[in-house]
Fold this sequence. Notes:
Oligomer: heterodimer
Shape of chain A: elongated
CATH architecture of chain B: Orthogonal Bundle
Strand order of the largest sheet of chain A: 6-1-9-10
Radius of gyration of chain A: 25 Å
Strand content of chain B: 5-15%
Number of domains of chain A: 2
Amino acid sequence: MKSQQNVLKRRLAARAVLAICIVALAFLMYNIGKEYDVVIDNETVTVGGTEYAAVGYAAIVIDGDENRAVDIWADDRIIRKMVGANHRLVVKVLNEDDDSVVKSVERSLKLDFNTKALMISIPALVSESSNILVSNPNYSEEIIVVPDAPSEVVPESLEEGVFEVP
Amino acid sequence: MAGKVSAKLPIEFTVAENIKHLLISNSVPIIFLGLSAMAIPLSGFSAGYLIQEMLTRLARNSFLVLSLLVPIMAGMGLNFGMVLGAMAGQIGLICVTDWAVVGIPGLVLASIISMPIAALLGFICGNVLNRAKGREMVTSYILGFFINGIYQFVVLYLFGVRGLLKIPFTDSYMRVPITSPQLVLSRGYGIRNAINLTGLRHALDNAIHFQMTLGGENPFMISIPVSTFLVIGFFCLFIVWFRRTKLGQDMRAIGQDMAVADSAGIAVERTRVIAIVISTMLAAFGQIIFLQNIGTMNTYNSHEQTGMFSIAALLIGGATVTKASIGNVFVGVILFHLMFVVSPMAGKELIGQAQLGEYFRVFVSYGIIAVALVLHAWKRYQDRERSRRDLRGEA
C-alpha cells in the first residue's frame, strides 16, 4: 500500500516537472522567436535637453550581417524586423561623396514589449548618448474598430466546404 | 496406450490461390498504381516536376497520416476525429501569429499551445467513442462536425479585440484577446478567413534542406526538406518503440479482442481514451507541419478535409480498418497525391476540362473509403474461410 502511494507520488512529481519544463520551453520559444518591428529614425531630435542633428548618410548593420546592411539618409525613417530580444547595432557614418567610413558606433539593444511605442534615434546613437530611444509619434494604442462593418471574406455558407488544394 | 496425437499438416495453397490472396490484400494500391500509370503520360508532367511534388507532399502530409496508426492499433478503426487535433493546431497558429513569434520557435510554441486543447478534445472524443463501441468511425465523423461548429463559433465570435457576448453581471465581454489587425476582422471580433503565415512559412522545411540536380540530358533540380523528413523519421521511430511498450501492447491486445483484454486486467476504456488523445495531439502537430508548408491558413476550411484526405491516403496505401503499417502511410501518400497532381491535366487531355480532375479527387476520397470498408468486410470473410480451411486440413 505504502509502495503504491510512493509510486503515485513519484509519478505525480515527474508529471509536474514535465509540465513545468514544457511551460518554461514555451516562454523560451516566445523570447527567442518574437519578432519586433523596430523603427529607426534619422531626424534631428532633442534627448534630455540636448539636441542631436540628423546624420547625413549612414549605414546600419544589424547583428553583424553586412550583406543586409541598410543605408539611411538625413530625415529618413525605416522599419526593420528583428527576431529575438538581444541585438547588436553598428552604425557607420559615411562620407556622401566616396562612401568612406567617417565614424563607427556600436550599441547593443534589448527589445521588449514597449519597443513598438519607441524608435531608435540614429543621431543620439552616433553621438553616443546614453538614451537612444525616443517616442514614436505614429504609435497609438487605440485599435480602430468599425462595429457595423459587414463581415468580410467569411464564407456565406459555412456548411459548404471549400476544397483546398493541399 | 493413450490417444495418439496426430500431427496436423498445414494446408498448402496453390500458387494461383496465393497470388489471388496477394492481389485481394493489395487491391487498392494496385488499382491506384494502374490509374497513375495511365494518367501520368496523359498529364504531360515531367519526371522532375512529379518527383519534386511528391517530395513536397510527403513532407507535408505524412505526419497527419501517421497519427492515424495509433487508434487502428487500439482497434478503434479510422479516427475521423483527427479533425479535432487539426483545429487545436490552428488555434495554436492563430495565437503565435498574433504574438508575431516566427520560425522554428513559433512552430514549437504553436505545438505547445495546441497540446492542452488537443488533449481535452481527444479526451472528450475518447469518452464519446467508448459509449459507441463498434461504431467508432461514424461517431468520430459526426463528432468532428459538432466540434467544428464549436470551433467556428469560438473563432468567429470570441476571438478579437472586443467581444460579442457580455459576461453576466459585469461590464466585460467574453473574448480571447487577439489584437493583430491582420488577423481580426474590422468589426473587432472574429478571425479573418485567410491568414498569411509569413513568419512560419517553410520554417521547418528550410531549417535543413538539400538541393540536388538529377537527370542526365535534361537535368532538373529538386529540393529536399531534410528537417521535415527527420521529424517524420523520428515519429516513425516513436511508433515502432511505442508498439513495444506496455501501453502499446495493451492497445494491440484491445485491438484484437476487447473482452479478452478486459479479462487479462487491461483497463480497456482508459487505454482507448489514451489512444485517441495521443492521435489527436499528433494530428495537431501534423496540421501545424501541414500549414507551415502551405504558408496560408484558411481559418474555417483548412481542417475540414484533413481527416478525409488522410484516411483516404492511408487506405490507398493498403491499410485496412484493423491493420495499418508505416509502409502503408508512405505508399498511400505518394499514390493519393500523385492522383491529385496528375488528374486535372489528365482530365483536360481526355475530356477537355480540367475541372474533371477536381471532381475525380473528391470522388476518389469518398469512394476509396467506401471501397475500403466493403473490402474490409469481404476480406474478413475470405480470411475466415481461409483459416477454416487451414484448420480443417485436407479432407
